[in-house]
Amino acid sequence: MDTDPYAVIRSILFRLDPETAHRLTLTMLPWVHRSGLLTSFLPRKIECPRVVMGLRFPNPVGLAAGLDKDGECFEAFEAMGFGFVELGTVTPRPQPGNPAPRMFRLPGAEALINRMGFNNQGVDALVERLRRRSSQKSPGIVGVNLGKNRDTPLERAVEDYLIGLRRVYPYADYVAINLSSPNTPHLRLLQNDSTLPRLLSTLKEEQQHLTDEYGRRVPIALKIAPDLSPDEVEKIAHTLLAQEIDGVIATNTTIDRTAVAHLPHGTEEGGLSGTPLGDSSTAVIKRLSAVLGGRIPILGSGGILTPEDALAKTRAGASLVQVYTGLIYRGPALVAAIASALCAEAP
To answer: What is the pLDDT of residues 187-207, one digit of tens each?
Structure first.
């Protein structure tokens, strides 16, 4: 008999449309957290501090961006045992995202496909929630993942990232720049070596201005795609070094359908996450690590559904890991299991 309480919850949620289940979860989580029920069913939070990007992370396991876009539940996710939570992707102006249906489960592959399209309430709504967190002096690490609005021309994308950076800077512990979602038209072109150096240079210049203004330095990490060629990954790595970027998140979701095309919903448009993404994201981490040589930390994300998956990321060169789809399929107990495994193999 399965004694995992989450197995029952998952069986109920998986009877619902994926986006409905997502919305219901975000609605219920704050109440469950406040009631004390959340932590009563979970192992104690694993404390295994890691200093990365100049920040002290309570443990090396984070929640990836996309699950809590608008910062409605980050206290509950911290209570689940995450060492850090990445909110967003958030854009300067609110936007509804792409038409539904736009999220699909592929249980046969423990995977998801989404084409949400940066649906969010806008950066001001998130900032208001982060301001309340700041007044309460929460000890957790919270990052904010920034994107551009769909209708902002690509040549003006940096303006949207600057707006986001300025708005969240007083409240975020770090900022992630999302140039790699497949669900905003042409966004991934910003990773090209003809565009990326200028964009990052502009953001780094603004980071310095904001550091001087607020008296605190907020690290900037770049989130990249898994569908880059080895040569493209190396060029990005050299650009990160040249621009002195603080971190890199590898990787976002994939557009490759090789592993799932035979499954129901396997050919839906959007970004594929979960088990099929694991090997390609780890390959990108290895390639980045070979060039970066520890000079810029890597946050490993993509296809982490077991502690062994997480260990593959850290052995490839990641300093921290992030989960999303693994949480959907395996439940909150996965967080402590991964943290325990990573802490047992601490460098």
So the answer is: 999 999 999 999 999 999 999
pLDDT band of 134, cuts 50, 70, 90: low
Among the listed residues 35, 138, 180, 181, the single catalytic one is: 181
**DSSP characters for 278-293?**
HHHHHHHHHHHHHHHT
d(Cα 47, Cα 44) in Å, to the nearest integer? 9
Tokens for 47? 């404390």
- CA 187 to each of CA 6, 91, 147, 149, 198: distance values in angstroms, whole numbers, following the listed order: 36, 13, 9, 10, 15
> Please, are residues 67 and 85 in contact by the beta-carbon 8 Å criterion?
no
Give the C-alpha separation, 339 to 172, whole Å: 23
CA 233 to chain centroid = 19
User: Mean pLDDT score of the chain, rounded to an integer?
Assistant: 95
Q: Rounded to an integer, what distance in angstroms lies between the CA atom of residue 118 and that of residue 226? A: 19
Q: What is the pLDDT of residues 173-183, one digit of tens each?
A: 999 999 999 99
Q: Describe the crossing of helices 18-35 and 5-13 by its angle, rounded to 10 degrees.
A: 140
Nearest to 218 by CA among 250, 176, 161: 176
pLDDT in tens, 84-117: 999 999 999 999 999 999 999 999 999 999 999 9
Residue type, 336: A
Give the pairing of strands 111-114 and 103-106.
Answer: antiparallel
For domain 5-344, give the CATH superfamily.
Answer: Aldolase class I (3.20.20.70)
Q: Is 60 helix (H, G, I), strand (E, B) or coil?
A: coil
Q: Which two tokens stand for residue 2?
A: 């399965």
Indicate the pLDDT class of residue 1, thresholds 50, 70 and 90: very low
Q: Is 181 a catalytic residue?
A: yes
Token readout for 99 is 């038409």
φ, ψ of residue 249 in degrees (nearest 5): -105, 120
